[in-house]
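Table 4 source record.
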Amino acid sequence: MRRIWVTSDLHIGHNKEFVYKERGFQSIEEHDSALLSNWNELVSPDDVVYVLGDVMLKKDLEDEEFSYALNILKQLNGELIIFRGNHDSESKLKKYETCENVIKAGEAACYLKYPAVKGYQFYLSHYPTLVAHERLKPVRTALINLYGHTHQKEHFYEEHPYMYCVCLDAHEMKPVLLDDIIEEVKDKRIAYEENIL
């Protein structure tokens, strides 16, 4: 059975210390090597991976550094569906789609119903988005926001049980299995209910 993974903010080839050092690496090459290794150890070629923006930051699509970053992207396992982040221009999205493993690139957000686990519902976006005002709503009927952008280390946005961060920063440089996210959200919702009662 094909598995579904979600991640965000790969920042491939983004040669700035505030990216790779914050994630525990001494160079961007070390960062990208760990990303590639971690990813391909978890994700099978026929799995689906939703990438919620900021794949790479190079602006010059013809330079050597952009070619380097695109080459890393091409090596990632799975069928990738890439969302537009604040650093993903229209021209970059078109380049991403030239990679055989990229099925689609471009949407800003989408609604995903996951039938394999009895209809859990997700709103996928680069930016955190408040989608469920009732924090005590049952998980199965709530709309759960999966987001990136923040580079936070915590899995939840301000302890909200239905806003879950999939940034690499929060997950040891690894994509997150959707089934595991559901279990974490369930636990968080129970903890939230216990704390307010």
